[in-house]
UniProtKB/TrEMBL annotation:
SUPFAM superfamilies: (Trans)glycosidases, beta-Galactosidase/glucuronidase domain, Galactose-binding domain-like. Keywords: Glycosidase, Hydrolase, Lysosome, Signal. Its EC number is 3.2.1.31. Plays an important role in the degradation of dermatan and keratan sulfates. Residues 1-20 form the signal peptide. Residues 46-223 form the Glycosyl hydrolases family 2 sugar binding domain. This is Beta-glucuronidase. It comes from Drosophila arizonae (Fruit fly). It catalyses: a beta-D-glucuronoside + H2O = D-glucuronate + an alcohol. Residues 225-335 form the Glycoside hydrolase family 2 immunoglobulin-like beta-sandwich domain. Belongs to the glycosyl hydrolase 2 family. Residues 340-633 form the Glycoside hydrolase family 2 catalytic domain. It holds the Pfam family Glyco_hydro_2.
Length: 667
């Protein structure tokens, strides 16, 4: 039988996708160490934060610095330098467009002293909280470490590279270029401009590709044989009265290699008052369990009167004959997570998320760690009554994870995969590596309650199925104690990834991107989309993004797009849908997009950036913030019986018997 032209075309078409489908689930290199640097009896920490020297490379010659050996001496001997703060994104520090939009490599260096005492009988480590996107590091002109992937820490031993009791130089080359095999993906192209040609970085994601040394740089010491890894997993008895902390410790060092059996660890748990509540001596495998009676579980904010309860786990590593080798202390929150196809529970109680999608973003410092901003953000989260946020669209600072633990804010922890498409082998390997590094870094945080393996991946594409099966199963193999999600934007009918997830999250902008301005086309659409996801996969569902761009101070009545009235109305129409959905137990949460306004690439749809913030970029509330606050506390009151603040409602009038709310007792 002869093939028709159309069936030949079909065969070729299928073949093309079958070939593209051949993505292998390869082993990837796993990260080591990376405990947050903490001082102890056996460890010293110092920071290299401050003002560094900085050079922007010529975009058309990004490898010039390597070829010319800029790392061999002070940068200023090769090129004129400018001062650059660390940590910070470099983009908005100067007034130059060429630096803001620079594509390719930049260089940093600085000098520092290392105490003479550090050269004796111990090891010294260099650790970066994050550099975006790729980093090459030299100490005194010798290569120290290379790392690819923004928003995640990396470290290396530098004992042999340092001069003790003398001056040292650290040089960093950072490359911000994103291509189709980086996480996230981007494109570099050469285009004509008025002077000839120029290089352009483009990307589909909706946030500015800030770059540089974004988080702190630390030097720290450890003993020769030291605690390299600690992993804890916690559990509670049926009635939450007894807690268990399962631990596993990995040691690095010669004492371990030469005589493994001679090592043991003594572990003690202290409560908030500093009273010891559990202790155990490990066997030589350094794996075991501690039991805490009358435990105070870790509870989310507003789910309990004492949220974010943390114990301190002290680990003392000994060699034979009671010789103390190393001491490391870790905060531990004791809690359980469990989920079914209809619910998600913490400590046996159903969770209803009241949260935000956020960004690490601020003017001038970009994505650079800023403790003042972080503290303000947590105060605002608590003021508004939120109990959760998603680290959209990349891992946030370790310092903010520690804050979330302390304040009882639940985190959906997202890896840097955004708008993922053109699924290919290199991308899969890097995507898995980003999750490995994320889980490794954050697995001990009680605040982390879910892993998000991607934001808005193109999951309608044929090969998304295999790709996300590999990514989800890999994440599960790293941590089976937390559910896995991804924020999906394709219609549920087209999606091919949801079946690999535990919880379905969906993003949708009714009355904004679809049916712009139509406030009468929100509520029913949200209800039916959420229901469609649940029907398709029979799993818990949450709405991970909804919102409207809002120009602070723009007031238009009746509500009109971009006005404060419009944002308020869009929220209210969603609340109505969420309340209808909440009656279905499988609907487990609502996340506004976004916590605060943030910078994006330049486009005619953005006025100075994305303005969907409930707070301005300067962290002041827009009108809708007050409405959201009333809802989040009302939900807290209904779902978790929390107390509500006295100033939640503004006094209006004493009209007893009517429905007018005039104080929080009316809730
Ligand atoms: C989305 C994206 C988010 C954008 C947002 C928007 O779906 O996940 O990164 O910022 O929409 O405002 O367009």
């Amino acid at each position: 039988m002869a093939f028709s032209l159309s069936s030949l075309f079909l065969v070729c078409y299928i073949l093309k996708f079958t070939l593209a489908l051949i993505i292998l689930n390869k082993e990837i290199e796993t990260s080591r160490g990376m405990l947050y640097p903490r001082e102890s009896e056996t460890r010293e920490v110092r920071t290299l934060d401050g003002i560094w020297n900085f050079v922007r490379s010529d975009e058309t010659n990004p490898t010039q610095g390597i070829r010319d050996g800029w790392f061999k001496d002070d940068l200023s001997k090769s090129m004129p330098t400018i001062p650059m703060p660390v940590p910070a994104s470099y983009n908005d520090i100067t007034t130059e467009q060429t630096l803001r939009d620079h594509v390719g490599t930049v260089w940093y260096d600085r000098k520092f002293f290392v105490p003479r005492s550090w050269g004796q009988d111990q090891r010294v480590w260099l650790r970066f909280g994050s550099v975006h996107y790729e980093a090459y590091v030299w100490i005194n002109g010798r290569s120290a470490v290379k790392h690819e992937m923004g928003h995640l820490p990396f470290e290396t031993e530098v004992t042999h590279l340092l001069k003790y009791g003398a001056e040292n130089r650290i040089t960093v080359m950072c490359d911000n270029a994103l291509i189709q095999t980086t996480v996230p993906q981007g494109k570099i192209s050469e285009v004509a401009n008025d002077e000839g040609v120029t290089i352009i970085q483009s990307y589909t994601f909706d946030f500015f590709n800030y770059a540089g040394i974004h988080r702190s740089v630390h030097l720290y010491t450890t003993p020769k044989t030291f605690i390299e890894e600690v992993e804890v997993k916690t559990n509670l008895s049926q009635n939450n009265s007894v807690g268990t902390v399962d631990y596993s410790i990995t040691v690095n060092g010669t004492a371990a290699n030469e005589a493994e059996n001679t090592l043991l660890a003594r572990l003690q748990i202290y409560n908030r008052e500093g009273v010891q509540v559990a202790n155990v001596t490990s066997d030589s495998k350094l794996v075991g369990s501690l039991q805490v009676d009358n435990v105070k579980p870790w509870w989310p904010y507003l789910m309990h009167s004492d949220p974010g309860y943390l114990y301190e786990l002290e680990i003392r590593l000994y060699a034979a004959k009671e010789q103390l080798l190393d001491v490391y202390r870790l905060k531990v929150g004791i809690r359980t997570l469990s989920w079914t196809n209809t619910t998600f529970l913490i400590n046996g109680k159903p969770i209803y998320f009241r949260g935000f999608g956020r960004h690490e973003d601020a003017d001038v410092r970009g994505r650079g760690l800023d403790n003042a901003l972080m503290a303000r953000d947590f105060n605002l989260l608590k003021w508004i009554g939120a109990n959760a946020y998603r680290t959209s669209h990349y891992p946030y600072s370790e310092e903010s994870m520690q804050f979330a633990d302390q304040h009882g804010i639940m985190i959906i922890d997202e890896c840097p995969s955004v708008d993922t498409e053109n699924f290919n082998q290199v991308l899969l390997d890097r995507h898995k590596s980003s999750l490995e590094q994320l889980v490794h870094r954050d697995r001990n945080h009680p605040s982390v309650v879910m892993w998000s393996i991607a934001n808005e991946p193109r999951t309608g594409q044929v090969n998304a199925d295999t790709y996300f099966q590999f990514v989800a199963n890999y994440t599960r193999s790293l941590d089976s104690t937390r559910p896995i999600t991804a924020a999906i934007a394709v219609p549920s009918n087209d999606d091919k990834a949801g079946r690999h997830l535990d919880i379905i999250s969906f993003n949708r902008y009714n009355a904004w991107y679809s049916n712009t301005g139509r406030l009468d086309m929100v509520t029913q659409r949200v209800i039916s989309e959420a229901t469609g996801w649940n029907k398709k996969y029979d799993k818990p569902v949450l709405m991970s993004e909804y919102g409207a761009d809002t120009l602070e101070g723009l007031h238009l009545q009746p509500a009109f797009v971009w006005s404060e009235e419009f944002q308020t109305e869009v929220f209210s129409r969603h609340f109505k849908a969420f309340d209808a959905l909440r009656r279905q137990k499988w609907f487990i949460g609502e996340f506004v997009w976004n916590f605060a306004d943030f910078k994006t690439a330049q486009t005619y749809t953005r006025v100075g950036g994305n303005k969907k913030g409930v707070f301005t970029r300067a962290r002041q509330p827009k009108a809708a913030a007050h409405l959201l606050r009333q809802r989040y506390f009302a939900l807290g009151r209904e779902v978790d019986q929390c107390n509500v603040p006295n100033d939640l409602f503004t006094y209006i009038a004493d009209v007893g018997g009517s429905n007018v709310k005039h104080d929080s007792a009316d809730l």
